[in-house]
Amino acid sequence: MGWASQFAFRSVTYRRQHGQPVHADMDVVIQEMVASEAAGVLFTCHPLSGHPGFMSISSNFGIGETVDIDIEHP
């Protein structure tokens, strides 16, 4: 899922709108999964505009798969 996401319509559109090459390099990190009660994602700038004066924390109970793939908006 991680590597293939670079080919998603949303990803390609973002790169085109921001003058980035459509064929971008991508790294994949594999980590050991640990038991968790909650998980989350922190953006230190606006995820769409890139504005640095914005911070957003999304979290949910469990391992965080709904936060990571933007299914749920807690």
UniProtKB/TrEMBL annotation:
Domain Pyruvate phosphate dikinase AMP/ATP-binding: 3-67
Pfam name, any one: PPDK_N
Domain of life, source organism: Eukaryota
InterPro entries for this protein: ATP_grasp_subdomain_1 (IPR013815), PEP_Utilizing_Enz (IPR051549), PPDK_AMP/ATP-bd (IPR002192)
GO MF, one example: kinase activity
Alphabetized SUPFAM superfamilies for the sequence: Glutathione synthetase ATP-binding domain-like
Regions crossing the membrane: none
Family the UniProt entry places it in: Belongs to the PEP-utilizing enzyme family.
Database matches in PANTHER family: PHOSPHOENOLPYRUVATE SYNTHASE-RELATED, PPDK_N DOMAIN-CONTAINING PROTEIN
The protein's name in its UniProt record: Pyruvate phosphate dikinase AMP/ATP-binding domain-containing protein
Species: Darwinula stevensoni
